[in-house]
Design goal:
- The protein contains four helices and five strands; from the N terminus they run H-E-H-E-H-E-H-E-E.
- The longest helix has 14 residues.
- By secondary structure, the chain is an alpha/beta fold.
- It is globular and about 30 Å long.
- The chain has a five-stranded mixed sheet, with helices on both faces.
- Helix content is 35%, strand content 27%.
- The protein has a single domain, classed as Pyruvate kinase, C-terminal domain (Pyruvate Kinase, Chain: A, domain 1, 3-Layer(aba) Sandwich).
């Protein structure tokens, strides 16, 4: 998933890549590809957020748990704006796994526009 996310972020000139992750593996895979956009690793687990702070190029954010794609997209866009990585009109690439909260299930690539 990391190479695909990095390629999409480069083509869209995305403001940020958000990896919504439980275990941190999704954020690690994305960061390994060195995408041209900032990588934000969002997780509802404090231990995972602490581990992600040690990964090159990943800005770890502890967030609330999400239950649906629209909530995840809204939370990701709000976080990107709040953390200063994007401005209105820029795309954000979001990688996550469905169902949410299941480690190792990254199977969703979502593109959102900052409002």
């Amino acid at each position: 998933i990391g190479a695909a996310v990095s390629a999409v972020a480069g083509r869209l000139q995305a403001a940020a890549v958000v990896a919504y992750t439980s275990s941190g593996c999704s954020a690690l895979r994305v960061a390994r590809e060195r995408p041209p956009a900032a990588v934000i690793g969002m997780t509802p687990h404090a231990a995972t957020a602490r581990r992600l702070t040690l990964v090159w190029g990943v800005h770890a954010v502890l967030c609330a748990d999400v239950t649906d794609v629209s909530g995840m997209s809204e939370l990701a866009c709000t976080t990107v704006r709040r953390e200063g990585y994007g401005r209105p009109g820029q795309p954000v690439v979001i990688a996550a796994g469905m169902p949410f909260g299941t480690a190792g299930s990254t199977n969703l690539l979502h593109i959102a526009e900052l409002v």
